[in-house]
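Data availability (excerpt). All sequences and predicted token strings are deposited with the supplementary files. A representative entry, Amino acid permease, is shown inline so that the format can be inspected without opening the archive.
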Amino acid sequence: MKQQAKKGDLKWWQLSLIGIGCTIGTGFFLGSSIAIKKSGFSVLAAFLLAALGTYLVFQQLAKLTADHPAEGSFCSYAREAFGNWAGFSNGWVYWASEMLIIGSQLTAISLFTRHWFREIPLWVFASIYAVLGLIIIFTGRSSFEKTENILAVLKTSAIFMFIIIAILALSGVLSGKTPDVQFPDELHELFPFGFMGLWTGLIYTFFAYGGIEVMGLMAIHLKDPKESPKSGSLMLITLAVLYMISIGLALLLVPIDSFTEQNSPFITSLKQFNLHLVMDIFNGIFIIAGFSTLTASLFAVTTLMGTMAKNGDAPACLAKKQHKKVSWPALGLTVLVLSISIILSILLPKQLYEHMTTAASIMLLYNWVFILLSSKKLTKPKLKGNVQIFTALTLILFAVSGTLFEKNSRPGFFISLLFLATIAVVTLMMRKKWTHTGKEQP
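Structure token line:
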């Protein structure tokens, strides 16, 4: 039985700001370089398609929230639509994927910090950021909201700063002369790697919009849950515009082959102007962005684990709340697995861990698929709603299938299937138990 939500105190625009804070992270500031390498100028089309797909998914999640406000968000809706097995598997797929992604985020922001302190071991910074994130979660939802609001403003300001600097650079103000603008004059320059480039790059642009799950978990705290679609619309339109303008300007400043997977497109495009102070500022912004999405992920997995425990999908002790409505046992489990994830990120070969985190990111899209299917069953959409659901499913499947044709992301796809198979086996075992005890829902 899903947990019915109480009336909250969150305004719709505050949820939009939290969504921006949870979404803008290393997936955009760094991952967009990979998308550019795969797609060239057509990466702008990929960002637009990913924004459309994300918008359609969130609209369905918002409809579910408006009609059935419940703790556990997408997991509760999957359970109501398809039974215990769906809620159980959705929760653990999301939890496993987020814990892996958290480890990679910690490693990334620790590497950024070592830009200034090269002699200090990586694990020291990872531990410091992990403790800071856990302190914010420990102090309660209010602290989390305030932190994400402040970091959202900082990250958005950084993108605006890049846009202004890039316009000045293109105008010749920075260097005293107008640089060679890399403007595509012909169709083959817009799609330098053809249709396949757009296909294989789409998955990385979807990663830049990851974060709507946290908005779904927070939406039950809205004063009026029916305003959830409005908050998602504002958030995604804002992000899509900022993403496309900033990436478009970066593409105009330097040739496509100048971008590398190791550097942010912002750093790559401004490097020729020797703006050392600006580079240090952006390095700090990358740390802020990674820490913000890290904190959002910690909040999501800790909150969701408590709800899963209430539903019998996790040990009952994880549902106990002693301080600021935070479950200490759930927080303790997060700390334990977080420590393991940090150790893996440091000890495993870099390529293998990147494949694991790519798999985790793909698994988030599997959750999105369930959101769409749950909405179709519970909200009984008419023609327009069905078209939206079908379009979103097509875009997600298009993005996921593109990983099969790209050598760097292909292993991540198969690792994601391995994770799904493991969780499926455990789910089947649990389903036998539920059937035996009479707890399985029809």
